[in-house]
Each structure stands twice: as structure tokens, then as C-alpha cells.
Design goal:
There is one protein chain. 41% of the residues lie in helices and 19% in strands. It has a five-stranded mixed beta sheet with strand order 3-2-1-4-5, sandwiched between helices. The chain has two domains: 129 residues, 2-Layer Sandwich (Nucleotidyltransferase, domain 5), CATH 3.30.420.40; 165 residues, 2-Layer Sandwich (Nucleotidyltransferase, domain 5), CATH 3.30.420.40. By secondary structure, the protein is α/β, with parallel strands linked by helices. The longest helix has 27 residues. Helix 2 runs parallel beside helix 3.
Length: 326
């Protein structure tokens, strides 16, 4: 079965053909990140306009083989951006008379790590770290999840971008903070991770961002101080993720950890997990599938069709927020 995946949740317009949930035949992405740089973040209206301009050419380029089904990212994401993809997917569904299947975007991020593996190891821990999402989940099988911890404020990638802005770095700041941190001392600034008293497994990054701001106000920020600040912030944020992941796997017989989201490209994060879990298989998404893309949508769409045995109705709606365990 060849599934066409369509992704328009934020600022990437993606289309991909994937055979049997694994073999990527095409994966086309048009990013609008260039138009958001001067705003220091995604400007929703401009993102939607770029989707309108890009989506048909992107789909046309991706169509390298006949299509058996259409998978569309229905959320979470920006409502206007989601609607662009959904309406185009419904139009193709009507025109081609092919099944339509709605996909949870964050679930697809975790599937990106599953996609290239021959044997899946369940139950497993899912760790999603991106610009819009941060959570830990128990994965019992594809489509079966139990949320263990999530962020109560900023996503970790969003926190990286905002700290990047404080340091005078252009958007997106996350990768630039990582580069800056490589020349810094992670122990220079004794930051503490956020705590959520009522839910110890949840994350909070607002206090850590504030601590970074206060540190910048207290000390003169030369280049080395900026490197130390970036390294200290990064180490605190990632150590918190590793600590909570360790607590999470104590609650069930975990067989592996699967990662998703753009923040998982960070080499320091990977090293910390490797050190903490030397005997547990760690599965990272390929770097070309860690950011928003349609291949993960198409791949997961194949399995969702196998599970449901039918597509979704034409009344399928977008959702700006969808829990992973829905």
C-alpha cells in the first residue's frame, strides 16, 4: 500500500509517499522559516499564506507513484495551517476516491523513530521534545499510549528559542544555542529545573528561562559568559528530561526508548541519555525525519488504516490540541 502523507501543522508544508509504512518513495518539504526570522518565532498568518502557495506544487512533486490512501495531519498545530492541509486532503479524497485517514502529529513524531527499525520493542518509553511539544509516554503498541508527563508551560524547543533570543541569536535559536554551548562551562551558572508539585513527572521551563534572564542582568555578558550561560541552560534542561525519563521507566518493564522531535538532534542530549541508559536500546529518528515532515504522517497512516480497516469520514475535523493518549 502506498500512502500519501500531507503535513501542514506549523511552518513546513510537506508531502510524502511511503510504501507499507516504511519505504519512503518521496519526501518533499517547503519551509517558511525564512519569513519568520525577523519576528523571532512563527507568524501564523504568514505561515498559512505560504502553505496556500506551496501545498499543490509540493504534492505534485511528491507524486512519483499511484496512491492507495491519503493521510493528513489533523493536529495539534496552528488552526489555519491545519485547515489548508485538511481541505486539500479532502479534495483529493473526493477526486481520487481513496481512503482518508487523520493522523495525530505528535504520535507521528514518535513513529519516525519506529519507522526504520526492523523489530519494535514494547512496552517502551516515548520521549517527544520539539518546539511545540514536550512529553513522556508509555508506548504499549502503535496507537496505544499512556501519558506520563508533559509540560505545563513552554515546550523545551520553545524555551531554547527564547533563550536564543535573549542571547541575541536569530530564530530558530535552538540549534544556535547548542553550538554556543559547545564552548561553554555547564557548571558556571547553577540553574535548577522547574518542579510541578502536584505532578512530579511534568515539566516546567518558564522558571529556568527567568533564571537565565536574571543571570544576564547580574553579570556582564562577554562571549565566554554567553557560552557558559548557554551550556548551563542546556545542561539543566536536558538533565531534567533524563531524570524524569529514568523515573518513568521505573513504572513499567521498559524494553526501549523511542525519541521524536527536532530537539532530539542535539548531540549533548543524546550523550546524556547514552550515559544514563547504557543497557537500554535507544532509537532516535533520522535527522531528516526529526523536524516536521510528511513521511512520518504517511508511515503512521498505513498502520492506522490496518488497525481501523477503513478511512475517516468526510466530516473529519482539525484539532489544535490532541492528547497523545486519545
Amino acid at each position: 500500500m502506498i500512502v500519501l502523507g500531507i503535513e501542514t501543522t506549523c511552518d513546513e508544508t510537506g508531502a510524502s509517499l511511503v510504501r507499507n509504512g516504511r519505504e519512503i518513495l518521496s519526501n518533499v518539504i517547503a519551509s517558511s522559516a525564512d519569513i519568520h526570522e525577523k519576528y523571532g518565532g512563527v507568524f501564523p498568518e504568514l505561515a498559512c499564506r505560504r502553505h496556500l502557495e506551496s501545498i499543490l506544487p509540493v504534492i505534485q512533486e511528491a507524486l512519483v507513484a499511484p496512491v492507495d490512501a491519503i493521510a493528513i495531519a489533523r493536529g495539534p498545530g496552528l488552526v489555519g495551517a491545519l485547515l489548508v492541509g485538511m481541505q486539500v486532503a479532502k479534495g483529493l479524497h473526493i477526486a481520487w476516491k481513496k481512503p482518508l485517514i487523520g493522523i495525530n502529529h505528535v504520535e507521528a513524531h514518535l513513529y519516525a523513530a519506529l519507522m526504520g527499525t526492523e523489530e519494535w520493542r514494547f512496552p517502551a518509553l516515548g520521549v517527544l521534545l520539539s518546539g511545540g511539544h514536550t512529553f513522556l509516554t508509555k508506548i504499549s503498541s502503535v496507537g496505544s499510549y499512556e501519558l506520563l508527563g508533559t509540560t505545563v508551560d513552554d515546550a523545551i524547543g520553545e524555551a531554547f528559542d527564547k533563550v536564543g533570543t535573549m542571547l541575541g541569536l536569530s530564530y530558530p535559536g535552538g540549534p544556535k544555542v547548542e553550538l554556543l554551548a559547545r564552548g561553554g562551562d555547564p557548571k558556571r551558572f547553577p540553574f535548577s529545573p522547574g518542579r510541578v508539585k502536584t505532578h512530579p513527572q511534568h515539566f516546567s521551563f518558564s522558571g529556568l528561562k527567568t533564571a537565565v534572564l536574571y543571570a544576564m542582568q547580574k553579570e556582564k555578558m562577554g562571549e565566554q559568559e554567553k557560552r557558559d550561560l548557554a551550556a548551563s541552560f542546556q545542561e539543566t534542561a536536558f538533565t531534567d528530561v533524563v531524570h524524569k525519563a529514568k523515573k518513568a521507566i521505573e513504572t513499567f518493564p521498559c524494553q526501549a526508548i523511542y525519541f521524536g522531535g527536532g530537539v532530539t538532534c542535539n548531540e549533548r542530549l543524546r550523550l546524556l541519555f547514552k550515559k544514563e541508559f547504557p543497557d537500554l536500546p535507544l532509537f532516535w529518528p533520522p535527522k531528516n525525519l526529526s523536524l516536521d515532515n510528511a513521511a512520518m504522517i504517511a508511515g503512521l497512516g498505513y498502520h492506522k488504516l490496518l488497525i481501523k480497516q477503513e478511512g475517516d469520514p468526510l466530516s473529519l475535523e482539525v484539532q489544535t490540541r490532541i492528547p497523545i493518549d486519545l
